[in-house]
Amino acid sequence: MLVFIDESGIHKQTDHSSFVLVFIEVKDEALINESIEQIEKGLKIQPFHWADFSSRSDWKIRKKFIKAISILPFTLKYIIVKNPILPQAMLRYALNHLLIGVDIKKVVIDGRHSRTYEQQLKTLLRRYGVSVDKLRVANDRSMPALRLADALAGLIRSYHDKNPDAENLYQLIESANKITSHLEVGGQAHR
């Protein structure tokens, strides 16, 4: 199983952060990467990044992108944490609740993190028996599957922050049975 990790909103002091683990089960990783690139080409956009489409009118692009990716072969698990939170604590929660019992072939995180963050993730992965050789840091511009994780992290945070534009998109992802597990820290919801 390939795991692509991205977060959204961890810099904020209010609302929510989302830590999204996108589990992509395909025989060929290139299939997901190629599909994302084709979606972006069809939408006539540069590599998708949730934050790049922050104006009100940009929700049209976000909606089209989310609808297009909703048919791709992936599932996701996520954790949503009330801000403010330390990234290390979020990592601990995510790994405690979402990675146990998963056969991981590779973990890819967005390369915009500090070396300290990477080291903390490696330490936690070792604790759960995952070889740190399986951890890769990549730039979402060079790895389309990370853009999938970015889009889902942004969507989930927006949904939990009660953004009305996000509700239907979240329901689309949920009704497509893409969300296999989510946890709201504090015992609010768990499934």
Q: If you had to describe this structure to a student in words, what would you say it looks like?
A:
- The chain is of the alpha/beta class and 191 residues long.
- Helix content is 42%, strand content 21%.
- It has helices at 29-43, 59-69, 87-98, 115-127, 144-160, 164-175; strands at residues 2-8, 16-24, 75-82, 106-110, 135-138, 179-184, 189-190.
- The chain has a 7-stranded mixed beta sheet, with helices on both faces.
- Helix 4 (115-127) links the parallel strand 4 (106-110) and strand 5 (135-138).
What is the element layout, followed by pairings?
Blueprint: E1 2-8, E2 16-24, H1 29-43, H2 59-69, E3 75-82, H3 87-98, E4 106-110, H4 115-127, E5 135-138, H5 144-160, H6 164-175, E6 179-184, E7 189-190
Parallel strand pairs: 1-4, 3-6, 4-5
Antiparallel strand pairs: 1-2, 2-3, 6-7
Helix pairs in contact: 1-2, 1-5, 2-5, 2-6, 3-4, 5-6
List keywords for this structure.
single chain; 191 residues; alpha/beta; 42% helix; 21% strand; disordered C terminus
How many strands appear in the DSSP assignment?
A: 7
Number of helices: 6
Rounded to the nearest angstrom, the distance between the terminal CA atoms is 21 Å
DSSP strand content: 15-25%
Rounded radius of gyration (Å): 15 Å
As residue ranges, the low-confidence spans are 187-191
Strand arrangement, major sheet: 5-4-1-2-3-6-7
Summarize the structure.
This protein is 42% helix and 21% strand. It is built from six helices and seven strands; from the N terminus they run ββααβαβαβααββ. The protein has helices at residues 29-43, 59-69, 87-98, 115-127, 144-160, 164-175, and strands at residues 2-8, 16-24, 75-82, 106-110, 135-138, 179-184, 189-190.
